[in-house]
Structures
1.
Amino acid sequence: MDILNHILSALPLIFSIDVIIAMIIGTAVGITVGALPGLSATMGIAVLIPLTFSMEPLVALGMVAGIYNGAMYGGSIPAILLRIPGTPAGIATVFDGYPMAQKGQAPLALKISLISSAIGSAVSAIALLALAPPLAAIALKFSPADYFWLALFGMTTIAVLLSSNPVKGLLSTCLGLVVGIVGIDAMTGAERFAFGSMDLLSGINIIVLLTGLFAIPPAIDLAVQHLSQQKEAPIENKKARIRWRPFIPVWIKSSIMGVVIGIIPALGGNIAAVLAWNEQRRSDPDNDQYGKGEPKGVAAPECANNADTAATLIPALTLGIPGSAVAAVILGALLVHGLRPGPQLFRDDPEIVFGFMLTMFVTAILMFVIGRVGARAFVHVLKAPTMLLAPMIIALAVVGIYSIHNSMFEVWLMLFFGLLGYGMERLNIPTAPAVLAVILGPMAEESLRRALLISGGSFDYLVQSWISWIIIAMTAMTLIVPMWKRFRRLKPSRGDQE
Amino acid sequence: MLLALLLSLIWALQSVLWLRKSESESTADSASLSRIAVFTGASLAYVVTIPFIGYFTTTLVFIPAVSSALGYRKLRILLGAPIIFVLALYILFSLILQVQLPDEPLLQLIGIR
């Protein structure tokens, strides 16, 4: 087996001391970031990427994996204790977690959440290891034309599915496309949108955009947030014993749901968690306890939202198509280290891809250990003053961006994107499609022009393979289905007032 | 790729119309608006001053200034946390990562660096 060989050769790399320390720090930071309401994995990774700039790729990626997994669990801490989900994916944990805490079972709820999260993450990482390499092998057979359509498919799905209003999503995508073409044209050497500025010639660094869009708006939100000190549920140190056997089917079902939902672009951990909770409630014979503090109602969503993590990376790593904001940020991290996501990555740098996938698995276990050891500390994170944190995030983002190229210009650019992103968020325009378009736009352009080179300028080449046709059909579906739905919704409601 | 620009202009127009139709009520109250103004204003001022008096000096002033402007009042943490934070950044960026940050005339005056 080729895959096993790759895994075995990547194993010693992960267990070097640097990578282990990076994973531990990453996981701890991730849980902390996730536990702070308003901060998410996306923001944590976006701020930290510039700091990992000078590290070895695997060290940086191990840290990223830790943050990603840790934040998903961290989100459940305030969900259980304060009834505020720390990350969007923690919403469903509130349903049963907070009632449990009110009954004085907060430590038990946290423990269930931790174990379920760790299991979800581990299953997800295994799914990633098992599914990604064969998919990459298939993807290697794609022609440039197929790639062009695939990039287009990625952009449309995110634009349409991620926002309630497809127009806003597509608008965001177009912004990204424009940002993506700034700089020197790789094929002809022409300057595009550089406005004669030296700083813009080399294009807009993806990290500048990522940090701006994903780190600044949460910082502003933190600063604005009025401190509504919610009553904290009492944490008694009661030793609670619980039988774990009834949880096993819950874990199996929820992790499978999480993995499947994670693979589909634009469906994130929050959807996985809510669906898993609903399914658990529906299938349990005595379901009147759900929503009132049923332990299985904590296990299901937590397991599902963590099972989503590595699965989201399957299309991102194999095809280069990120399905969510976090995946886009992680792709950004890969790009910083000169790794181009896509099937070639599996062929050219197998140690790093397999190493990264393995760190996703190892951090799942680390998360359990760190979560147990540091349980008390992470609960105290909730008391951190947001007014102090907000300027610290700005300071970190500024120094991080500055340190990439020692350029004040990029710091300004980052702030500009930050304000732009904040404005977009206030107008309910999602920022993730823009980031995706910055990554996918150049990919679409490159493959389109390569396709035209191969065919000698004839556009027929674009619609010649059956893979192209499947992807075109899928793109058309994502565009038509919401329109059709809206049309159907509009018809009966024409009479009543909106 | 000029097409993309054209398309985004069309969409921009479309969404302006859309927004005009749908968003009639303003969502922000004046209190949070002033907080946004204070925070973003301070951040911009922060970045403006970095090239002149250096990153660490500005950060040392910026964090407590903004926090107190936003209404944080615990004096010990207000002064202590930024010092620890800046020290950690100094160790990470200047000692470990060896990033060349702008000069620190004020800190040099006291004899640090």
Note: Residues 2-489 of chain A form one domain.
2.
Amino acid sequence: MDERLRHRAAAVAFLVTLAFLYPTLAVVDELARHLGPALLPLHLFAVWLLAVVAMALLSRRPGRGEEP
Amino acid sequence: MTARRILIVDDEPNIVLSLEFLMKKAGHVVESVTDGAAALDRLGGPPPDLVILDVMLPGIDGFELLRRMRARPEWRDVRVILLTARGRASEREHGLALGADLYVTKPFSTRELIRRVNALLDGERTR
Amino acid sequence: MNLTGIAFLTALAYLALLFLLALYADRRAAAGRRLVAHPVVYTLSLGVYCTAWTFYGSVGLAAERGVAFLPIYLGPTVVAFLFPLLHLKLLRVSKAYGLTSIADFVAARYGKSGLLGGFVTLVMVAGTTPYVALQLKAVAASLEAMLGDEMARALHGFGADTALLVAILLALFAILFGTRRIDATEHHEGMVFAVAFESLVKLAAFLAVGLFVVYGLVGGFGELHRRVVAAGLEELLGFAATGFTYTDWFGYTLLAALAFIVLPRMFQVAVIENLEIDHLRTASWLFPLYLLAINLFVLPVALVGRLAGRGGDMLMLELPLAADARFFAFLAFIGGLSAATAMVIVATVAVATMISNDLVMPALLRIPRLGLERRPEVPGLVLGIRRTAIVLLMLAGYGVFRLAPPDLPLVRLGLVSFVAVSQVAPALLFGLYWRRANLAGAVAGLGVGMLLWTYTLVVPMAAEAGLLDRSLLEGGPFGWDLLRPQALFGLEGLDPVTHAVLWSLGANVVALLVISLTTEADPLQRVQALFFVDVHYGARSVRPWRGEARVAALQELLARFLGPGRTAAFFRREGRRRGRELLPSDRVDAELVQSAERELARAVGATSARLVVGSVVRGEVPGPESLLELLDETSQAIEYSQRLEQKSRELERLAAELRAANARLRQLDALKDEFIATVSHELRTPLTSIRSFVEILRDHPDLAPAERQRFLAIVAEEVERLGRLVDDVLDLSRLEAGRMEWEVGLHDLREIVETALVRAGGLLRGRGVEVTTDFALARAPLVCDRDRILQVLFNLLSNAAKFAPPAGGRLHLELRSLGAQYLVRIEDNGPGVPPELRDAVFEKFRQGARALHDKPRGSGLGLAVCREILRRFDGRIWCEDSRLGGAAFCFTLPAAETLRRAG
């Protein structure tokens, strides 16, 4: 686990934290009034899934031939 | 005591001069060369009975000269006294290992040197 | 057979299956084929975070307050993304030091403090017991839900009795698979494999039941959404339904994140049981995915429940049962049972290890009368303590479940214990990243945190249960409004848990910071701090230290705790590392003591290990002073290397510089050796001539007068040569040390050159050298030390004379101006200097310079002295080709400024 992975992990965690908390949440909740009541849970789960995918891609071990 | 032939190899003219004087006074026939190239040439000639050899010669060092000397069958039994102005123990070992009979550090006692030269010529092996 | 019987038997069969799986995994591990050495198994074992609360409580909460259940999972999700940072460090530290639990970890960080280890253990016991109770209650409640209301009433207490049976079986499981060996850092493959299996079961069960409920009962997400809107339940999807403020949302997320890090069961599976650090790579995304998947159907199931007019914690069971889908009801029941049992097993094993290693053993070891370190039955004792602790924890959990007042919701109790457990997080996290954090700070923080936890959470709970005066909550103690436990200092409008989290953790952190900054840590603590904070930067270094204690004593001691087999293996290993067998009569050194302590720490924890080893080498371990020295040295080295690591390019540059400097130093050293040898040679050569001729003169009084005269002249010449050499050596050393005395004045370089030529005239004539001159300047005023410049010129002229060929020697001397400088050029037709040696000749006694000329009859220092003198007057000297065919030595000197301006 190199420094690059540590930086990427920190970045993912930071962005996810922003998306999970105020003020993002307040904005989403406000939008939900216009776009449909399911927006808040959809937002939370979508961010969650996106972050998982991002982290899965970013934490791949560099394969042969790729730059380390 | 019959006269013996002694070859002096040193590049310091004054030291050569003093050695020549001492050896002649001791009754020996003396011949001297003052650089490595001349010394190498001399190896082609008839071997003397004893060589007084300076370690630090220009062109070739005394150790190398000694090695080449010992490589020649006719020079194998020539007695060799190494003279040096650098008194390191390792060099002494090196010199003796190459087949020198004696290793003398400059400056030396002239009486002692004469005594050792005569003793060597009379068959004493000091090492 | 009726449903009850089936459920009961299913539970027993399920537990039997777990036993078999654990046994199988242990066997495989013993045979060297580890089932658990896979990142997916590691990730699944982390699923122990999801307990019966996830299975039942979350759904119940969602039915009432929508997404309010989520922060408890969002916090750990964020932490999981941080695995490659935070847990990487936790793992490296605990693997390096053989740590056995969260209490051991924290205690070891703060100087292997028994006080702190015990404190943390107590907090963990307080935080775990209600949680165990919650699990047992969930098992009981789920069984009763399977029975249906009437049956449950008829068989009153059946669920509870089953819960007791389950508790006993779980205790048995924990004892069998969690306390087999004394070495707590050895991995419990069976337990971990069973837990990972349970994580899979509960996920599969949740997904299956969720799919059944959403698609089987309602007809899909779209239909569910339509019905929710139609029933006017869409409010439940918004933030308002949670009853939270955004601060509460943040508070719960933070609480869950911290608890996830420090919960004993989480620390156990994530850190202690980890087999390969690299598994974190997979877990950092797979575990968030697991959490996402297991939470996916919480809200939908809750909504379906609300549409059916239901609520409460048993929706997962009740919805399938109401639809007469017994299979799915069973799945849900098994899933819940999985969640509950996994938590109980891991938590009790983890906390029991703490109790034995950080509470009971240190206490027993401190009682001198017991003489524990001299008794043979210690390994059995440690295991006995752990087993007893497991049983007691399980019974305590059962007791809390049975005795808790009926109006005290267990979920609330669970949250209260979460807050207690999270108080350990500041000491852990600051300890991991901040070197100044010290024991006093950690104890103060934990103490203040627990006090506020008691005041803001336990006191109100007691008041609500009628154990304290209720007026305390509304009016504060003694009617002091500011001190109301749930609105401390006027902090109002928050959820009680958030209120408690903010106050207790805030005060905890502040106390830790303030006390750490204002108090000094003892040396041991500072050393430990260094090792923990800078774990990336290599292992601990050990100063050579040799005490009086013998290897035999240490051997005997270790054998008592570890048994003879492991002790022998340990000493064999140490011997191999040293390349020689350790004999019983050998003295122990510091390294061996530390290794032994680490080995022992695996069994009994860091604090106890220190006490035990201290009993053998007491008073002999390196004292605080030497530790302090080590600390300073190490910290300097570490800071240095940290800086280097931050900029790897700078590192490379620095390394190259260091290498070059090193090479220069070595070269200088060699030069110094060479210098001394050469000076000795140069001194011996004239001395030899002098001695020889003096002895000749002594021994031959009959010498001819002419010969006597000649020999005396030689002696005089050699004495002079010796004198010159001594002068040159002295000059050079003065010049190089900057201690030369200069007589600086305004002089004429032409006059100096001419004087030098006159002085060297005898020598030149003696060698038959023909001299020509070319002085382009009538006057050449300059500021210099006349004698020294004269010395330079004489030196160069006599060199030229020395190297002149025996016949037909020529020398050409030239003086002219070159810009603002004067140039002096001395050419000869001697052998010359090959281009590659033209710099070397100015070095003192350079071999190259010696080999070049046929042993110059000088000191070998002359040119070096010349260069130094000229340098003093901003002049330069070099050697080039001569038009005469030999060497040309040139030097420049700046012209006098005033006169140059005038001219």
Note: Residues 388 and 459 of chain C are 31 Å apart (CA to CA).
